[in-house]
Design brief:
Bound molecules: 1,4-dihydronicotinamide adenine dinucleotide, magnesium ion
Radius of gyration: 20 Å
Number of domains: 2
Strand order of the largest sheet: 2-1-3-12-11-4-5-10-8-9
Largest sheet: 10 strands, mixed
Number of helices: 11
CATH architecture of the largest domain: 3-Layer(aba) Sandwich
Order of helices and strands: EHEHHEHEEEEHEHEHEHEEHHH
CATH class of the largest domain: Alpha Beta
Strand content: 15-25%
Distance between the termini: 19 Å
Number of strands: 12
Structural class: alpha/beta
Shape: globular
Helix content: 25-40%
Length: 335
């Protein structure tokens, strides 16, 4: 085997979309040995913990993981697995390219946007307490250090990808200190990238503009909560959650996963669209330098979508998750 990566099948549709994605990677000729670890609901049932140490150790060792979505038990005293994973491995940058794909009915065409979300603090710092009966406080943390790290990531990404503008989406009119610090820190880093235009727009106005004309933005840089919300909005612009990939990247490890969750409403039925995770796997290949293979997989996905014959129900078809995997494996361009 050429590579050894961690695989987290996850909950709900996770095992289905990860199996489909592995099938395409195998068909492309990638020799990957998967170290398979459970996290989420399945892990709670087996080990009592939603995020066992073995998962973190495996990712630390392999440095790369492909992850299905996990269900975080709500209100049972467990904190979010995703938040825990991102914090434990300091996967501070969440990268979510939002691109139109051929043959997909969607509100917009030619969308080509990058969402970069700070992944370790903000309102998702997980610090909440009840200060008096009927009064809960959720703490939003913004630090110069984390803001600087995500800003550096955003400008380096923009530079590498030939993008010209980075827009900070914020709410500094209300959260003057926190979001104010975020903006000031990003602007300091921006000074090192004079060839990239940097601007700041209030996040509610960003939502409006995205709905009206997504070409208004190039790279959007957001704190954690805003990034989560705007990512799903972005998915809506290009045809839904079944199509939008993502990556959680740190200095020593990276975890690739789709934007969508475990979709309990369709789990176990073979109806899940595996393309979002396959595109996440293509990001993984790009990240490790297998750029030609990443391009092959993206091209094959585009071919199958454009043909419109093998589509899952979310895209108006009746194909199963594994039908889509087989079609994409078949359509891989020759090497
Ligand atoms: P969701 O993304 O799982 O589902 C929202 C809607 O989109 C559902 O109607 C679902 O059927 C549909 N959908 C999502 N992915 C799809 C796909 N690949 N193909 C076809 N349809 C798809 O969001 P929801 O329902 O809010 O969350 C369900 C669970 O997932 C929760 O426990 C949540 O905490 C977890 N979650 C986990 C994430 C992760 O592990 N990265 C991210 C988001 C949510
Ligand atoms: Mg989300």
């Amino acid at each position: 085997m050429e590579y050894r990566f961690t695989l987290i099948p996850g909950d709900g549709i996770g095992p289905e979309v990860t199996a489909a994605t592995r099938e395409v990677l195998r068909a492309a000729g990638l020799r990957i040995e998967w170290e398979i670890h459970d996290a989420g609901q399945v892990a709670v049932e087996q080990t009592g913990s939603p995020l066992p140490d073995a998962v973190l150790d495996s990712i630390r060792r392999n440095r790369i993981a492909l992850k299905g979505p996990v269900t975080t038990p709500v209100g049972k005293g467990f904190s979010s697995v995703n938040v825990g994973l991102r914090k434990a491995l300091n996967l501070y940058a969440c990268l979510r390219p939002v691109r139109s794909l051929p043959g997909v009915a969607s509100p917009w065409r030619d969308v080509d946007l990058v969402i970069i979300r700070e992944n370790t603090e903000g309102l998702y710092s997980g610090l909440e307490h009840v200060v008096a009966p009927g009064v809960a406080v959720a703490v939003k943390i913004i630090t110069r250090e984390a803001s600087r790290a995500i800003a550096r990531f955003a400008f380096e990404h923009a530079k590498a990808e030939g993008r010209h503008r980075v827009t900070i989406a914020h709410k500094a009119s209300v959260m003057r200190l926190g979001d104010g610090l975020f903006i000031d820190t990003v602007r300091e880093v921006a000074a090192d990238y004079p060839f990239i235009v940097t601007d700041a727009v209030e996040v509610d106005n960003v939502a409006l503009q995205l709905a009206q004309d997504p070409s208004a933005f190039d790279v959007l840089l957001l704190e954690n909560l805003f990034g989560d919300i705007v990512s799903d909005l972005g998915a809506g612009l290009v045809g839904g959650l079944g199509l939008v990939p993502g990556a959680n990247i740190g200095d020593t490890a990276a975890v690739f996963e789709a934007v969508h969750g475990s979709a309990p409403d369709i789990a176990g039925k073979g109806r899940a669209n595996p393309i979002a995770l396959m595109l996440s796997a293509a990001m993984m290949l790009h990240h490790i330098g297998e750029r030609r293979q990443a391009t092959r997989i993206r091209e094959s996905i585009a071919t199958v979508l454009a043909a419109g014959r093998t589509l899952t129900p979310d895209l108006g078809g009746s194909a199963s998750t594994m039908d889509v995997a087989a079609a994409i494996a078949d359509a891989l361009p020759r090497t």
